[in-house]
Design a protein that fits this description.
This protein has 128 residues and is an all-alpha fold.
Length: 128
């Protein structure tokens, strides 16, 4: 039996590295997320066959747990790429679109005038 156990003199114990703050935070978040997801699955299982009133109450609890789940994931979301541009970008594009439409209307009116002066048949486009 002594042949199966390693000799103490030649085995060096490895130092346990303390996890960094980021690793610890991620581990805690993963634990919280697993717990919240497990609760949500349990609530969904419980809902089968219950009355409408109880289902509404359980859905309220599930909504709260979902909010908590979202809050746990929030620090890990990439805020630089949120999936949609800032509202100021929408405003710039909207103003540019308005300007282009106004320019189009002016140019179309000028085209109609030129066509009328030359005697060519007018285009059927509407100015609005």
């Amino acid at each position: 039996m002594s042949a199966l156990q390693p000799k103490r003199g030649k085995v060096l114990p490895l130092r346990r590295l303390r996890p960094s703050a980021a690793d610890e935070r991620a581990s805690n978040a993963a634990r919280t997320i697993r717990t919240k997801l497990s609760l949500l699955e349990g609530y969904a299982d419980i809902m089968e066959g219950l009355s409408t009133d109880l289902k509404v109450q359980i859905l309220g609890v599930m909504a709260e747990k979902t909010r908590e789940l979202s809050a746990a994931l929030q620090p890990f979301l990439d805020h630089s790429v949120e999936g949609r541009p800032a509202i100021s970008d929408y405003r710039v594009v909207r103003n540019r679109t308005r300007q282009l439409i106004a320019d189009y209307r002016v140019l179309l009116a000028r085209l109609h005038q030129t066509m009328a002066q030359t005697g060519e048949p007018e285009t059927k486009e509407n100015l609005s």
